[in-house]
Structure formats: C-alpha cells, structure tokens
Model the fold of this input.
Amino acid sequence: MAATRVLVVEDEEALQALLDYNLGKEGFEVTLVGDGEEALLKIEEDRPDVIVLDWMLPNVSGIEVCRRVRSKHETQNIPIVMLTARGEEADRIRGLDMGADDYLTKPFSMGELAARIRAVLRRIRPALVAETVTAGDIAVDRAAHRVRRGETEIHLGPTEFRLLDHLIQNPGRVFSREQLLNAVWGSDVFVEARTVDVHIGRLRKALCKHGHDDPIRTVRSAGYALET
Done:
C-alpha cells in the first residue's frame, strides 16, 4: 500500500534530519521544507496526508500556515500536528483554536511523534490506517492484498493495487498523473506520465470485468478520480 505522506515544516536543519530519518523508519514518506511560504506552495502543489508544522518559522509563521490551510476547502481536512518550544497553556490553546489537531512541545521523543501522527490519522482520516478501505461497492483489504467489488473478487497486479489503494483514500478527488507517479512509483523513479494511463486502463478493465460500471473518472488535462 502507498505510504502515508508527511510534510515536515521545520527550519532547524538538525531536527529536520532527525525527523526525516525517524519518520522514514516508521514507514512514512517524508517531504521536508524549511519555511512557511515554501510549505504553502508545497501543500498547494501536492497535498500531503498529514502536516508536522513548527510554530516558529521564517517568512510565514506556523500558526499562519495552519490558519491558511484550514481556510481553504481543498486543504481544510489535512491533519496538522504542531511542534513548538512554547509550553504555556495559552499558546497550546491558540494553536488548537487555529486548527491544529495535536500539539507537541520540544523536546519530544520521535516515538511519541509517530504515535501522535497515527492517532490523528485514525481519528480524522481512518482510510489511511485502516486495513480494509471501502468506497461504494469496492473494498480494498490491505493486509490480505485483496480487492472485492460487491460479492466478486477482483484480481489486480501490484501496480494496479497500489493505484486503487491511493485513489480510494480520497474518493472523488482528482489526482494528476504526476501525483499518481509520485505516490505509486516514487519520486526517485523515472517513469513516463503515459505509463499512468496504461495502468489506469488495466485497473479499469479489472474493475469492470464482471459487468460493473466504470468507477474511474477521467478529467481532461487534469487526471483521474475514483467515484463512488
């Protein structure tokens, strides 16, 4: 299954490296940015599954990043865990009032951060941590690596399984070919964008093999979405 994508917004390089290593070891796919302005651009370009956000940042503060993420319909449901050296109760309340889902005061243990991220995902976006995810009549069992549509078992190749697993996490959301390439093949692997079309075609064929309607919507010049 596709790894949970975590955007870490932290300007301290030593802590960046620790977060990258430890969250990667926990199975998360980590992207690092060093200031609030860059974070907002990154979130707009390729929405992460969860944001780990430092309070004190150059250019745009973490609290302002949080406010802007929550103010947009497209990003308002992304879970946010804030990191800060501020331990006063008033500051914690302000962070939570601005839309943070959880709060860790520095210094903190990497194990606790990973546990907080998983807890937030279970609460807010359970599809990212559930073993079985459903959308309409399609069910993906990640543990058994099996897919069912209604009462019928659907046989998929590994790439098609990863594609479906990614699409089913956000039913109705349109993913560009580049976003699907990064999520399914990885950003460090060179694969042509048209390869996505080939595998989407195979996924469609498998899902519609037994007379079912096509659940994948093609959006011209934009990408693909799974409809329920």
Notes: The CA atoms of residues 118 and 129 lie 7 Å apart. The mean pLDDT is 86.
